[in-house]
Specification:
globular; binds adenosine-5'-triphosphate; Rossmann fold; about 30% helix; binds magnesium ion; alpha+beta
């Protein structure tokens, strides 16, 4: 029996989920997305769209009435509304999981209570409290907004006592937490999946390079030794065991200079650092997510080719409608644009994967090619 899939969020992740769903038409007959932006990326590839806010109770209820199963591609849905409709239908990952993950403090507390390694952190309750705890943590230290943060916009790295006021004021009125700054060697992540029958699968560890807090590159596989990759994969599996609900999860981690692996944060959804799987694996993370929530056997997660993914961000110079980008796609270069109507500085507009089709396993060569392709990408106004 085919199902109608409802997705909260119709951005690029919803778009690539929709594309995967369209290829699984023996299981999914239709896709509906809830997104506040008219003509959102998912709607461009054949999803029906309900235009509404992710937290709009009526819109979420409407989505649930029109769908057989519900999932999400953003973390900012209203988990209470989802919990209230979860009795009548399946929402995956479980709204209770979303509720924990939405609050960075609750998330880290939950991970620590379950024996998973995280950086030192503490809750902040007032300005006085912040000053006291910052003093005991020492500098540098990271003040974080607990909720509704993305692309590092909820983080303030405090270097000295003079910056405390500015940092606190930046998030004033919002719940906050404090975290020790990890002097990391590398940022890595694991894309993991669990299906509704409890089967778990993980993709190999990848390396993530951020610029200005936004993911720029993902290198698959991560350039670490076997001990570290095994430890990170074990942490990812254990994480999957403690969180409820089916689906794909992105598990972001730090590798410290003394070779420890700490969890930075969990995303209960398909993840930017999993976009390489569109070409590097026989099952993309998007198909895997759908297989997981439909209760199908999970697909193979082997890395078939070394691959580097590069995000295409909006340039600083201009904003508005832009001419379609094209690059020659050969020799293992795959461009994916998200069909957003307007470009804005630092907005995620697309990505490309450079795949080691000749199986040289030479990451430096792939990185060189990434630079060549990047130099060909220019946004220009229509
Ligand atoms: P995302 O970019 O995944 O949407 P976000 O806004 O929720 O993320 P985090 O993942 O908490 O924010 O942080 C963004 C980046 O800031 C991390 O990838 C890392 O580079 C840096 N960072 C966050 N916490 C720490 C820490 N405790 N120590 C060192 N660097 C950190
Ligand atoms: Mg993050």
């Amino acid at each position: 029996m085919t199902k109608i899939l409802g997705i909260i969020g119709g951005g690029q992740l919803g778009m690539m989920l929709t594309e995967a769903a369209k290829k699984m038409n023996e299981h999914i007959s239709d896709v509906i997305v809830l997104d506040p932006t008219k003509n959102c990326p998912a709607s461009k590839v054949g999803a029906r769209q309900i235009v509404g806010d992710f937290k709009d109770k009526n819109a979420i209820v409407e989505l649930s009435l029109q769908s057989d199963i519900i999932t999400y591609e953003i973390e900012s849905g209203d988990s209470e509304v989802l919990e209230s409709i979860n009795s009548g239908m399946t929402i995956n990952p479980a709204p209770s999981t979303l509720r924990i993950i939405q609050d960075k403090y609750m998330q880290k507390k939950f991970l620590r209570e379950n024996g998973l390694p995280v950086p030192d952190f503490v809750e902040i309750n007032s300005f006085e409290d912040a000053k006291e705890k910052i003093k005991s943590f020492g500098y540098p230290v990271m003040l974080k907004a607990r909720r509704d943060a993305y692309d590092g916009r909820g983080n303030f790295r405090i270097e000295n006592p003079e910056e405390i006021t500015q940092a606190y004021e930046q998030f004033s009125g919002r719940p906050m937490m404090l975290e020790k700054v990890v002097d990391f060697e590398m940022e890595v992540s694991v894309i993991a999946a669990r299906n509704t029958n409890g089967q778990i699968a993980t993709y190999p560890l990848v390396e993530n390079i951020h610029e200005e807090n936004i993911l720029k590159l993902t290198i698959a596989p991560a350039r670490v030794n076997k001990k570290i990759s095994e430890e990170a994969e074990n942490i990812a599996k254990k994480t999957m065991e403690v969180f409820h609900g089916a689906g794909v999860f992105g598990i972001e981690m730090f590798v410290t200079k003394d070779d420890r692996v700490l969890i930075n944060e969990i995303a209960p959804r398909v993840h930017n650092s999993g976009h390489h799987t569109l070409q590097s694996s026989s099952t993309s993370q998007f198909e895997q997510h759908l297989r997981a929530i439909l209760g199908l056997e999970l697909g193979n997660t082997d890395l078939l080719h070394h691959t580097v993914m590069c995000n295409i961000l909006g340039p600083q110079e201009f904003q508005g409608k832009y001419k379609p980008l094209t690059i020659e796609q050969n020799n293992g270069v795959y461009l994916k644009m998200y069909q957003k109507d307007e470009v804005k500085p630092q907005r995620k507009m697309g990505h490309f994967n450079v795949v080691d089709v000749k199986d040289t396993k030479d990451t430096n060569m792939l990185l060189k090619k990434v630079e060549e392709v990047k130099s060909l990408i220019k946004f220009s106004p229509v």
